[in-house]
């Protein structure tokens, strides 16, 4: 590793790994981010960046650049397939409650901003890395790269939900489990007049999120219990009776550009998010169901806190245990809440769905009091020093 600063190796070039690289470089570490893919084509069409994550991006020096890329404010809420609103609000209202806007972005924009904020030459693509020795206070960690082993004062494993690092060095940590649904994600060509909304049907959830350039980020998840469509045509047929613009958006995307994934998550984070000099961040540590849109946001928080709490010259192993003690309760709580919110979206019985919708309508009437009370601890979070 070049340079004289203590060396940090980040395994994985997703949102969590890139953000960690930026945070550590800003803290004075000599960072190398190693990504096995040969290009940074992010998986996932769009991403919702909540206020807690926007403030994490501020801590990484890219908050304002990210805000500049985001859609204008406006109306948003929760709707029924026939278009009736269950919960309706304005982005400005939520921003005043949570202290910042929620940003809707092309994933490539977020990844591009983070990659550009890394020191020149610190990103290594097309290389697979693995932790050979997690190290101790008195011994560096060892990371195996295609051209040999390197010592590292700090390793960040941001290697995703299927993390080899977690499986190898935290063998008692639970692995991924199915979430009970399959999701499609895509960005459509521009369509004017689309209002941001999530739409809850029987076992099917669709989200339509207008982006700043007029394109629309769409996601649709279908519960196993209602039968997962074989292809996009079958999905279009299932949603043909939903209110516009849902059918029009589905019609405007070609099959090749839609991503399809069976949703999986970790039932709990590892007992500690760190072993030796190795920190587990993002989905590697706490992959969660996407119902709160917080998976990437929590990865950004991990990175911001890591940059603030683990400094060159520290006893890294001890600092990482303190970092884990700070982060673990929070990510576990967000994982639990995400799983809880997912449950009623998987319901298929007409009676249960009617009760659910009546409950959501009541929440809609009392949005300020109920909705924001549950979300406030998540969305109002601030990074250290903010
Ligand atoms: C349908 C859906 C919608 C979502 N919507 C949102 C949203 O709106 N907002 C939000 O905040 N979150 C959302 N999420 C969650 C979010 O996508 C993830 O939490 C986030 O992308 C995790 O980032 P990561 O960097 O931890 O992992 P990943 O993005 O999985 O990145 C891991 C990287 O590590 C690389 N890698 C793995 N092993 C190695 C190795 N040995 N060597 C080198 N490289 C390696 C991989 O190639 C990959 O690039 C959503 C998720 C889903 C499924």
From TrEMBL:
* Superkingdom of origin organism: Bacteria
Ranges for domain FAD-binding come to 8-337
The answer to whether UniProt assigns keyword Lipid biosynthesis to this entry is: no
Molecular function (GO) terms for this protein are:
monooxygenase activity
Q: Which UniProt keywords apply?
A: Monooxygenase, Oxidoreductase
InterPro entries noted in UniProt: FAD-bd, FAD-dep_Monooxygenase_BioMet, FAD/NAD-bd_sf
Q: Does the keyword field hold Oxidoreductase?
A: yes
Which protein are we looking at? FAD-dependent monooxygenase
Record the organism: Isoptericola peretonis
């Amino acid at each position: 590793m070049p340079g004289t600063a203590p060396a940090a190796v980040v395994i994985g070039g997703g949102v969590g790994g890139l953000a960690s690289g930026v945070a550590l470089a800003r803290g004075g570490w000599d960072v190398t981010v190693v990504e096995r893919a040969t290009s940074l084509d992010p998986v996932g069409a769009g991403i919702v960046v909540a206020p807690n994550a926007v403030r994490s991006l501020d801590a990484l020096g890219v908050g304002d650049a990210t805000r500049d890329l985001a859609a204008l404010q406006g109306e948003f809420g929760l709707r029924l397939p026939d278009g009736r609103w269950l919960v309706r609000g304005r982005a400005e209202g939520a921003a005043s409650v949570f202290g910042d806007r929620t940003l809707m972005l092309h994933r490539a924009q977020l990844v591009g901003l983070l990659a550009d904020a890394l020191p020149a030459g610190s990103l290594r693509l097309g290389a697979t890395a693995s932790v050979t020795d997690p190290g101790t206070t008195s011994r560096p960690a060892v990371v195996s790269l295609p051209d040999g082993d390197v010592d590292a004062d700090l390793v960040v494993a941001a290697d995703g939900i299927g993390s080899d690092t977690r499986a190898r060095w935290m063998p008692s940590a639970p692995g991924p489990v199915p979430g009970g649904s399959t999701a499609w994600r895509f960005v459509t060509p521009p369509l004017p007049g689309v209002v941001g909304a999530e739409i809850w049907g029987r076992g099917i959830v669709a989200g339509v999120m207008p982006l700043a350039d007029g394109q629309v980020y769409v996601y649709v998840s279908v519960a196993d219990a209602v039968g997962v469509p074989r292809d996009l045509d079958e999905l279009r047929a299932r949603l043909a009776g939903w209110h516009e613009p849902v059918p029009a958006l589905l019609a405007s995307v070609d099959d090749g550009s839609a991503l399809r994934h069976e949703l999986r998550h970790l039932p709990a984070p590892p007992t500690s998010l760190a072993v030796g000099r190795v920190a587990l961040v993002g989905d590697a540590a706490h992959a969660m169901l996407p119902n709160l849109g917080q998976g990437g946001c929590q990865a950004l928080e991990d990175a911001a806190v890591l940059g603030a709490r683990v400094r060159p010259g520290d006893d890294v192993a001890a600092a990482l245990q303190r970092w884990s003690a700070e982060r673990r309760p929070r990510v576990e709580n967000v994982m639990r809440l995400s799983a809880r919110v997912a449950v009623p979206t998987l319901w298929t019985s007409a009676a249960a769905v009617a009760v659910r919708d009546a409950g959501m309508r009541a929440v809609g009437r009392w949005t300020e009091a109920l909705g924001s009370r549950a979300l406030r601890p998540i969305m109002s979070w601030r990074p250290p020093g903010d």
